[in-house]
Amino acid sequence: MAEADKKNISEKRHWLERLSHFLLREPEDREQLIELLHSAYENNLLDADGLAMIEGVLQVSEMQVRDIMIPRSQMDVIDISTPPEKFIPFVIETAHSRFPVIDEDKNHIIGILLAKDMLRYYASDDFNAREMLRPALFIPESKRLNVLLKEFRSNRNHIAIVVDEYGGVAGMVTIEDVLEQIVGDIEDEYDLDETEDNIIRDSHGRYRVKALTEIADFNEALDTEFSDEEFDTIGGLIVNKFGHLPKRGDEISFDGFNFTVVRADSRRLHSVLVEPAPEVTEDIET
Length: 286
Known about the structure:
Layout: H1 3-23, H2 30-42, H3 48-60, E1 70-71, E2 78-79, H4 84-94, E3 98-103, E4 108-114, H5 120-123, H6 129-132, E5 138-140, H7 145-155, E6 159-163, E7 169-174, H8 175-183, E8 199-201, E9 207-210, H9 215-222, H10 234-242, E10 251-254, E11 257-264, E12 269-276
Parallel strand pairs: 2-3, 5-6
Antiparallel strand pairs: 1-7, 3-4, 6-7, 8-9, 9-12, 10-11, 11-12
Helix pairs in contact: 3-8
């Protein structure tokens, strides 16, 4: 090979190395990092799921427990003073694997009861729910999600009780809630799936509705008259009413109904609980 050709190849290689170094330089801030990730996606170096997960990881590092917790009013709890034969039907209906347990006299959470431990009720004549309790993990509302996830992994906990600045119970959060911020909604055996109806009525007369339910089907099932000219699904209508993407436990009332978000992640609304809104009466001065 001639010396001139070798020189040309060397110059091209040097130019390519400089260009690569410029393109692959370390991002200086979060915005540059996200821009770089989107560029990788647009160049087919990263698929949509991978991009969404990485963005979820970055988001988790900035989010706090208060952003995703289930509010106290939405928690399914067991009163330790209630006999097992009374609360077991409630356990079966809600189908959770873990339940915070309260002592009504002291009005605070005294532990966590696992659904699998209640099987001993059917195998023992002297079942004592208090003896079955696992210690509850209490965390502040301000705890970062990435720190909480690390604690969940190290302590092998799956649920934590969130307390406010005064020590009162503000809500609860599970390891699934945190992971869903990274990988999106995690379906389990108790979630509404593709084989189930979009609208399911529970024993209390409330309706659990998939967000993707068409407004026409919703109107037919609940005898409502919501317009489908602007939105096709009930989820689209609800998000529009909120004015932002709501999180689990958020509530909104309109047109005679109360809508409570049951499942939602950082990307979309999944399901809501629908019930008639309480009538508002105004005091009339005489």
